[in-house]
Amino acid sequence: MELTHFDDKGNARMVDVTEKEDTIREAVARGKIKVSRAVFEAVADRRIAKGDVLTVATTAGIMGAKNTFQLIPMCHILQLTKCAVDWQLDAAACEINCTCTVRCKGQTGVEMEALTGVSIALLTVYDMCKAIDKNMEIGEIYLAEKKGGKSGHIINPREV
Amino acid sequence: MELTHFDDKGNARMVDVTEKEDTIREAVARGKIKVSRAVFEAVADRRIAKGDVLTVATTAGIMGAKNTFQLIPMCHILQLTKCAVDWQLDAAACEINCTCTVRCKGQTGVEMEALTGVSIALLTVYDMCKAIDKNMEIGEIYLAEKKGGKSGHIINPREV
Amino acid sequence: MELTHFDDKGNARMVDVTEKEDTIREAVARGKIKVSRAVFEAVADRRIAKGDVLTVATTAGIMGAKNTFQLIPMCHILQLTKCAVDWQLDAAACEINCTCTVRCKGQTGVEMEALTGVSIALLTVYDMCKAIDKNMEIGEIYLAEKKGGKSGHIINPREV
Amino acid sequence: MELTHFDDKGNARMVDVTEKEDTIREAVARGKIKVSRAVFEAVADRRIAKGDVLTVATTAGIMGAKNTFQLIPMCHILQLTKCAVDWQLDAAACEINCTCTVRCKGQTGVEMEALTGVSIALLTVYDMCKAIDKNMEIGEIYLAEKKGGKSGHIINPREV
Amino acid sequence: MELTHFDDKGNARMVDVTEKEDTIREAVARGKIKVSRAVFEAVADRRIAKGDVLTVATTAGIMGAKNTFQLIPMCHILQLTKCAVDWQLDAAACEINCTCTVRCKGQTGVEMEALTGVSIALLTVYDMCKAIDKNMEIGEIYLAEKKGGKSGHIINPREV
Amino acid sequence: MELTHFDDKGNARMVDVTEKEDTIREAVARGKIKVSRAVFEAVADRRIAKGDVLTVATTAGIMGAKNTFQLIPMCHILQLTKCAVDWQLDAAACEINCTCTVRCKGQTGVEMEALTGVSIALLTVYDMCKAIDKNMEIGEIYLAEKKGGKSGHIINPREV
After folding, report:
1. Could you tell me which chain D residue has the CA closest to the CA of F77?
2. What residues form DSSP beta bridges with F90?
3. Which of A88, A85, A83 is nearest to A33 (CA)?
4. pLDDT of residue F3
5. What average pLDDT is seen over chain A?
6. pLDDT of residue D1
7. Residue E2's pLDDT is what?
8. pLDDT at D10
9. How near does any CA of chain B get to the CA of A152, in Å?
């Protein structure tokens, strides 16, 4: 199997998608941050008070998704037509779950945008809570689902 | 316990570090990407051929660490004096482990820079290998070690 | 009335424009900076000499308009096809008036690009003149006109 | 009086501050956006519900302040040690007032950072409310106060 | 002959391409860096060992090409569909030759992207080798070839 | 001789300057663009009219110099205290010569900032004149002079 991001002389390159068709693309990525009880409660409390860790993290995640082409060297610049970040709080496990959904009409997929959105959103939660807990851990970042383009509708085995 | 990134009216803010002393700070963060055997071998082979997934990812990780203040909303801008990205390949587990070490002389720590460096480096590996494997997973991103500043030398329990 | 930038759970999001049609869009925004007589004359003089505050501010305004999607969190990335910054000097009032006109062919309007262009252009004038006058004031920034898309041709009541 | 941002041949330049002393600097800027009653209420309501226009705008304002050196051509890059954005809602006037306070220890002042922070925060409010009201107006952006450096403590006449 | 980047009042502007047709565009730019024998050998050796000056420079060149619209004030933002950086080592002359090829489907050409890609790639080689040689020189940066759009297929006289 | 931008395992890295002393640093870089007679006259004429190719290019060059740490992967982020771009028109040779001078007080030199400033300024001239002439050539970009730090005062042999 071949890495598509290298030419036959071994130079890294952006894959040529010039001849590919514009189709509607969508990608959903997920990830989580495992935090202490104290952090979990601080974040969950904010959720019902004014001000809000997760609104700041959502904002950062959306801006991060839009910045993907400047962060990930071989990513194409795409005109995202939708970007949303959702959160699910798992109190039993002290875990904050993040989902980022991205859409565009273009020549290549938006999975990197969704994955970058999740990563930056979770890093922002980390940053805003690190004064309380220095042992938080970010993990299980994966592509949950992908639609559009040659590869069609793909669902991660974890999702089924 | 208090979230330091909010004032008493609940507004998000950058923490005021004006009166803090300049000290030498260092942070080490780790993370990994779990890949298929096919991806693992493609990456490991590049390692000994010309061109190299991991050199591209190292470059992206260092640039990402330098961009942290523009990605994570409440992060201070810091003059990083060192940034290095290292890799350890675990063939048995099909895992590519990444470590990012950052130093600066400043008024606040560089853990977010190290964590962002690891995250962007791993996302870059994902991007360059996603044509082969769509089920890769990024995880176990944590602060391994931190030196300098008021909190002194901190080592993550995972490291000992 | 509803804020479109939140989903029904209250999460901030970028509005989904995937299904909207590409049409030619145009927006014109205006704003002004009120300056002291000394600043006014320094700026007006440059206008006829080599070098020029307003050329630097025009350059910054155009670059700012292009950066809108990275500055305003919920703005879409758009391929601007035109961006122009014009100036009108009002000597009687000691006011420097700025107009920014932006066009694109896309799925959503360019009013934020025009407003951001005006804002950055005026801030640049402020920056270059602040050694002379610290009481300048930027104001009356509004959308003068908007064409294209579902809402059609809109003219601000101030303009008529 | 001289514009300091030009050399004697008329070339635009960044002012040389190499020989200036590091002192603690602070700047406070203000501005406002005049909105319709419907927008005012939508923003004020969010303030007490989950999710929040003003938290997104605060986040954008802080990120904008940190980006000032890349937006305003002749601004120096400074290590901001504090950046805060505050809001005051004036229900009678349907006005949303924004204050941005910035501090650093450096060789030049942070007034442009404070003014840029206010401008980007207000543009973000505009963006998130423009579906309801297209005649909002941003204005009265000025430097309220400035401390540190050669010019000492300066208070805008508007403030006294 | 007229400079197209100014309106008839002499204001700098981005050229209006709204009415131009989308066609496939391609541009190839070249440039070189002249280095000492010691640098040349260090770079060439890396080429066959793990790690690699030219992979880092390729990465930077591609990212630079994607950033063109934010670096060159009057450049349009374009959705590049291909970006590749190639190298040719001329051992006799101690010269490292760089070629950058860019494609997009859009309303204006990509020559600035190709030229910026070459420039940033060569600056990166300079940076990574400057500890050995402070007299390197970058030069002969030109547009080799250009296809698509109104001006059709253009080949630089140097190429024939 | 060793490339300092790689560790002993061959990983690219930012050089660690943590222990280096803060000293005042200065670098001067030069470069030129060779243009047709028609371009030369258009640029020179602007010089004495309102509006000005070279003011736009100066602005872009200064902004480019400030962006160096985000363009050149292994460059440190530095607080530039001065950045100036000068031009010298050589009518006989149809050449536009550019000089960029950068200063900072820091732990590493500013030669890359000066070289990047020159490169971006010259690319901007290219962009604004390319409608007239497609065979322009940018070249002879080199470090003219460097002061401060361990290596002391260095003057390029070309300068003497």
Report:
1. D77
2. F95
3. A88
4. 72
5. 89
6. 53
7. 65
8. 75
9. 12
At which residue do the structure tokens 């602005």 appear? F59
Interface contact B135-A143, CB threshold 8 A: yes
| DSSP secondary structure, A65-118, as one string | HHTHHHHSTTPPP--EEEEEEEEEEETTTTEEEEEEEEEEEESS--HHHHHHHH
Structure tokens given for C59: 């350059």
Query: What residue ranges of chain F have pLDDT lower than 70?
Result: 1-2, 46-51
- E50 backbone dihedrals φ, ψ, rounded to 5°: -75, 155
* E72 DSSP assignment: S
Beta bridge partners of E14: C83
The alpha-carbon gap from C118 to the nearest alpha carbon of chain D, in Å, equals 11
CA dihedral B103, A118, D56, C82 (to 10 degrees): 90
Q: Is the pLDDT of residue B51 over 60?
A: no
Give the whole-angstrom CA distance, residue F66 versus residue F145: 19
Nearest to C30 by CA among C115, C121, C152: C115
What is the pTM assigned to this prediction?
A: 0.94
Beta strands in C5-75 (DSSP E): 13-14, 23-34
Q: Exposed, middle or buried, B56 (CB in 10 Å: 0-12/13-18/19+)?
A: buried
**CB proximity list for B14: less than 8 A, separation 6 or greater:** B5, B74, B75, B76, D62, D80, D82, D83, D84
pLDDT tens digits for range A73-123: 999 999 999 999 999 999 999 999 999 999 999 899 999 999 999 999 999
CB contacts < 8 A, E to F, total 173
Start-to-end C-alpha separation, chain A: 27
DSSP codes joined into one string, D46-70? HTTSSS-HHHHHHHHHHHHHHTHHH
Residue B137's region, left for phi above 0, alpha for psi from -120 to 50, else beta, is beta
d(CA C68, CA D127): 11
Q: What is the CA radius of gyration of chain E?
A: 17
D89 at the C interface (CB within 8 A)?
no
Cα separation values, A69 from A78, B101, C77, E2, Å? 8, 24, 12, 35
Half-sphere exposure of A140 (CA within 13 A, CB side): 14
Q: What is the mean pLDDT of residues A132-148?
A: 93
Q: Are C102 and C112 in contact (CB under 8 A)?
A: no
Q: Which of F16, F45, F90, F127 is catalytic?
A: F127
Spatial CA neighbour of F86 closest among F74, F102, F105, F72: F102
Residue D25 contacts residue D109 (beta carbons within 8 Å): yes
Which residues, listed in sequence order, are joined to residue E99 by a DSSP beta bridge?
E30, E86
- Residue pointed to by tokens 């030759």: E97
pLDDT band at D47, cuts 50/70/90?
Answer: low
Q: Which residues contact C8 (CB under 8 A, 6 or more apart)?
A: none
How far is D144 from D156, CA to CA, in rounded Å?
5
Q: Is E81 on the interface with A (CB under 8 A)?
A: yes
Query: What are chain B's domains?
Result: 23-159 (3.30.70.640)
Angle at B104 between CA B103 and CA B108, to 5 degrees: 110
The pLDDT of residue D146? 94
Place of tokens 């698509």: E148
What's phi and psi for D112, nearest 5 deg?
-65, -35
B21 touching D (Cβ < 8 Å): no
Q: How confident is the model at residue C1 (pLDDT cuts 50, 70, 90)?
A: low
Nearest to C103 by CA among C113, C116, C88: C113
- Chain F closest-CA separation from residue C67 CA (Å): 14
CA–CA dist D22, D79 (Å, integer): 12
Residue bearing tokens 């931008």: F5
Q: Return d(Cα F37, Cα E110) in angstroms, integer.
A: 24
DSSP annotation of E52 reads -
The partner residue sitting opposite A16, judged by closest CB among E62, E81, E86, is E81
Asked if C127 is an active-site residue, the reply is yes
How many A/E residue pairs have CB atoms within 8 Å? 59
